[in-house]
Design a protein that fits this description.
Strand content: 15-25%
Largest sheet: 4 strands, antiparallel
Strand order of the largest sheet: 2-3-5-6
Order of helices and strands: EEEHEHHEEEEHEHEHHEE
Number of helices: 7
Structural class: alpha+beta
Distance between the termini: 45 Å
Number of strands: 12
Number of domains: 2
Shape: globular
Length: 303
């Protein structure tokens, strides 16, 4: 089992020892099909084109490791949050390589830091992120530009040769993701309960709601066929629709209330996503969110 190191004894090893940060995600990756939504190994690629044909995403899994999953992407959320924290501190030389101890990372993303199996799963996730290939024209700015990258340029673990104990790990973010973090408005806050969502589809739906619903007074409406295409799901549309309706009926996403709308002009159902704090206070789904990265409006702050 890996032990948490005594950082005072390792001054040569920079550790981003920040496990209680407000969470951030890079906004360009939140609504498109960049990750597998299933925990089972996916070896089929994702090929997505927006309805207007102006945006496309292609994701290619490694045959040995499979495609990076939306649970693997928790590591990227943590890394994005670390970079944003450096920016907020006023750091001027922000590296693409982040060094840390796996114990701290596992705690930060809501995983157990106890037991060898959790560290093995972390290493497998890092392998999938390093070997999943992505091509997209997102952020092309109207030009015929294509970005090709992996979710991590590399990762490595530093092990004490004498004790065989881990002194830490490091990951290097790809330039595409790194520039997206540094760009103005390039990140969005993520609710801390996101890591408690167990289903891949629920996790992705939260990201869609956060990206599109935001703080819009009337929320955001999206048709089921459009959601299905954006998800990159391998399951048949009929099964996807059944699962999505059950998720809407449970209505357990952090921050956002889901309403299933069965009768639409197209004949297909749609989903209404609206922020709970914007509902009328008498609505059963209303919930005021007090988050550590946001302050309540003046007059509503607790004494």
């Amino acid at each position: 089992m890996l032990k948490k190191p005594d950082y005072a004894r390792q001054p040569d090893f920079f550790v981003a020892y920040l496990t209680d940060l407000p969470l951030r995600d890079q906004r360009d990756v939140m609504e498109r099909p960049f990750f597998s939504l299933a925990k089972s190994k996916r070896t089929e690629p994702i090929e997505y084109t927006s309805p207007k044909g102006d945006i496309w995403v292609k994701v290619f899994p490694n045959t040995s490791f499979g495609m990076a999953t939306i649970w693997d992407a928790d590591i990227l959320i943590w890394a994005v949050s670390q970079v944003v924290e450096m920016m907020n501190r006023g750091d001027t030389d922000i590296p693409r390589t982040i060094r840390f101890h796996p114990y701290d990372l596992l705690k930060a993303i809501g995983r157990s830091p106890k037991g060898k199996e959790h560290y093995d799963r972390l290493r497998s996730a890092l392998d999938r992120l390093t070997h999943t290939a992505v091509k997209t024209n997102i952020r092309a700015g109207g030009l015929k530009k294509t970005a090709s990258f992996h979710w991590l340029d590399s990762w490595r673990e530093i092990v004490d040769e004498r004790t065989q104990q881990s002194r830490g790990m490091e990951v290097t973010l790809p330039d595409w993701l790194y520039k997206g973090i540094l760009a103005k408005g390039g990140v969005l806050s993520i609710h801390e309960d996101y890591f408690h969502l167990t289903g891949g589809l629920e996790r992705w739906l939260y990201k869609v709601a956060r990206k599109h619903g935001g703080m819009q007074e009337h929320g955001f409406f999206i048709s089921l066929p459009t959601l299905y295409e954006k998800s990159g799901s391998e399951e048949p549309y009929r099964n996807f629709k059944i699962r999505l309706r059950k998720i809407a009926e449970r209505d357990e996403l952090p921050e956002y209330h889901l309403v299933w709308l069965a009768d639409t002009e197209s004949g297909e159902p749609s989903l209404h996503m609206v922020r709970r704090s914007l509902l009328h206070y008498t609505d059963p789904a209303f919930k005021w969110e007090l988050r550590r990265d946001r302050r309540a409006p003046k007059g509503l702050r607790s004494a």
